[in-house]
Amino acid sequence: MDAFYASVEQRDDPRLRGKPVAVGGQPASRGVVAAASYEARAFGVRSAMPMARAVRLCPQLEIVRPDFERYRAVSGQVMAILRSCTALVEPLSLDEAYLDVTENAWGEPLGVNVARRLKGLIFEQTSLTASAGVAPNKFLAKIASGWRKPDGLTVIAPERVETFLQDLPVDALWGVGPVTARKLRSIGVEKLVRIRTVDRVLLERTVGSLADWLVQLSRGEDPRPVEPDRPAKSASSENTYAQDLTDLETIRAEIERMARENAHWLSDRGLEARSVSIKVRYAGFTTVTRSHTLSVPTSNADVIASWAVALLEKTEAGRRPVRLLGAKVFNLAGP
Q1: Cα–Cα distance between 39 and 34 in angstroms, integer?
Q2: Cα dihedral across residues 237, 238, 244, 246: positive or negative
Q3: pLDDT mean over 147-162
Q4: Measuring CA to CA, which residue among 250, 201, 192 is closest to residue 221?
Q5: Distance between CA 138 and CA 50 in Å, rounded?
Q6: Is 68-156 assigned to CATH 3.30.70.270?
Q7: Class of domain 234-333 (CATH, top level)
Q8: What are the pLDDT digits (tens) for 158-178?
């Protein structure tokens, strides 16, 4: 979905249409941007950015408080549309999913036609636009889906894969954020395909355990299947940031937001969690997790969020740059 939270707000409030919109907290309370409209992005406003900085970049910014109940309701509509086409739908978040449409309910042999039909149904039923990537595997489809946003449709046919790969910069690879991209460029890797020819010892010394995966992706190979929903044993939210986070208040706000999303997920399903955990990946790719087991299972968003934020005190967040954050609830109880 395109700028999902902000687009829902613009759809539902005509006053916001065509204006720069940021969904998130107020600057005075150290709020963070959860989503930015394309009009706001033109000023450099991005998700996870402190709202105070967003307002400095765009003084006319319209700030809207998030309404996750409404976003989940719209997400449910979108996912139902996707599942009307194929049972092989793997949601990544409220606004994004992988689909395997090799076989589909419409008997349509061309993935591009499936994508066009789905985009049309989504707009018809929600008045929102979606961007689609059609490709032989997850890695390529993910890149293609962001290629011509908003309302984009990009197809990478099997015979075009190598040509497509030749033009990609190294930071198009999964797992390559600004820090790793700088490391790769320091050894002469500017283009994705250059990873194939780098001395293996040098590559492992530069990116460590990521080496095998990056080489595989540089060849356009990704064997992972689309995995549809299975009985849930946990719920988690995770985000990798384009710019490393250094401000502790911003990091806390992000963890709290993710934890509350997980709590709402529990409530929607009549479930409760016995355990809460967070994940912090620092700029150097060191990853730590911290967990807490509750005395009584709960789906209370305040309780889950407060424990998730408290667990940050057991990390070096705020003292070391952070490139990825995640929050999770597990050990579930209920129907």
Answers
A1: 15
A2: positive
A3: 93
A4: 192
A5: 32
A6: yes
A7: alpha beta
A8: 999 999 999 888 877 665 666
Whether the link from the prior residue into 14 is cis, omega within 30° of 0, is no
Could you report the per-residue pLDDT of 277-300, keeping only the tens digit for each?
A: 999 999 877 889 999 999 889 999
d(C-alpha 312, C-alpha 251), whole Å: 9
- Here the tokens at position 225 are 């299947």
Q: Whose CA is closest to 335, among 230, 237, 232?
A: 232
Residue length of the chain: 335
Separation between Cα atoms, residue 37 and residue 65, nearest integer Å: 14
Residue of 39, 90, 96, 316 marked active site: 96
The DSSP result for 9-34, as a single string, is HHHH-GGGTTS-EEEE--GGGT-BEE
* CATH 3.40.1170.60 is right for the domain spanning 4-64: yes
Whether the CB-CB separation of 21 and 39 falls below 8 Å is answered with yes
**182: nearest Cα among 285, 65, 42, 35:** 285
How confident is the model at residue 209, as a pLDDT? Answer: 79
Where exactly does CATH 3.30.1490.100 map onto the chain? 234-333
Name the amino acid, one letter, at 325: L
CA 145 to chain centre: 13
Q: What tokens were used for 273? A: 């969690």
Q: How far is CA 12 from the centre of its chain?
A: 23
105-121 per-position pLDDT tens digit: 999 999 999 999 999 99
Residue written as tokens 């190979």?
221
Q: Span 168-218: which CATH code? A: 1.10.150.20
Write out the two tokens for 110.
């061309």
Structure tokens at 43: 């000023």
Respond yes or no: is residue 96 known to be catalytic.
yes
Residue 120 CA to residue 294 CA, distance in Å, equals 45
Does position 250 have pLDDT exceeding 70, yes or no?
yes
Burial class (CB in 10 A: 0-12, 13-18, 19+), 192: buried
131 has pLDDT over 90: yes
